[in-house]
Amino acid sequence: MLTLLRRPPREAGATSTFYVLTAVAASAFAMCFTLNLVFQYRVVGLDPFQMVLVGTVLEATCFLFEVPTGIVADLYSRRVSVIIGFLLVGVGFAVEGVVATFAAALVGNVLWGIGYTFTSGALQAWITDEVGEENVAPVFTRETQLDLAFGVVGTLVAGVLGLVNLRVPVIAAGAILVLLAVGLWVVMPERHFHPTPRGDRETFGHMREQLVAGLRIARRRRVVRVFLLVSLLVGLASEVFDRLWQVRVLDTFAMPAVFDGDEAVAFTVFALVGTMVSLGASLASGRWLPQRLVDSSPGLPVALAMLLQVLAVVGVAVLGNLWLVLTCVWLRSAAMAFSRPIESTWVNRNLDGPTRATVLSLNSQANALGQVAGGPPLGALASWASIPVALLVSAVVQAPSVAAFLRVRHVVGGAPTGRPLEPFLEE
């Protein structure tokens, strides 16, 4: 079976294939995700705990299958890995949309989680091999532009299809990704693949070595400890918000008359506004924030952004006006977009080249573990008590992140200074 996938019947150019793939995938993902949570709540009938559990299963699947699926891309073929990945993601979406039960949601998310791990890393490695490292930077820049543009297109299409039935955009997204996989089998070239050397392959042994090396670096560098702690706290707190803020809106407020009370139209508009606000915040971070402040005291804007995130979660939990709640949702997204490039610059300046990938990988793993550990308890709390209570608890969990960033807010000559991190990071 895998041999049949190795060579395309009609080979196309790598760059043009990559651009078309990016546009189609961005549209399909936006079509599915814009109204997916509304679909799960209104059509499937999931309760808050079940909704959070579905997200936790997805996170756990991605975490567990990242290494096994990477073997295909490392040893056999990146083209094959990408095709299998999009096929599984599409089937996962379709199963969830067609069957529309709690069990189908779990199975569908497991399938698309495994599919995502097949594409994760393999797609970027494939295009880098095909065009060459020296030529790939402008390709990735255009990829980002296409991803944003066609994400908006997919969001609009989701709103239109959602007027028919909330399951339609989910099923349509799955069908599009299955067709994308078929199209890639026909035209996707692979002329420059070479198996990854044994020492560079992602294995469970390699992950264990990364963990040990990352913890060793964290013991020596305070900023690294802060980022690992914050990633864990954010992971513990974020799953319940990401999965339940829409349910909070649906349970508490009627949709505005301007949308004729239609939830599909309303949440499509909410998503578009959120995208534009986040994009504006990201641009503001790079253009308006004084570079001197970013260079010398990056912890100040990052801590402020983290504080805004915590306050926004509290606002979603306690406010009784729809537009104020939505403002808090958009504020949280904007704060995350604003701080992300600053955080990335800050942590990379405190890492040496050989250790950078190790620490960044460990940072992602800490966030994933936090989501897996924090999602079910907070989801159960949302079902047992209420969603506002669970959101308030998640805000309390994330709040120490503000103090952690403030206590290492200065950077002088690439080395962090500031007050000791106790009691947060005591050795």
TrEMBL record:
Membrane topology per record: Multi-pass membrane protein
PROSITE patterns attached to this UniProt entry: MFS
Localization: Cell membrane
Keywords: Membrane, Transmembrane, Transmembrane helix
UniProt feature coiled coil, ranges: none
Pfam families on file: MFS_1
Keyword Transmembrane tagged: yes
Keyword Heme annotated: no
PANTHER family xrefs: PERMEASE, MAJOR FACILITATOR SUPERFAMILY-RELATED, TRANSPORT PROTEIN-RELATED
Name listed for the protein in its UniProt record: MFS transporter
Organism: Terrabacter terrae
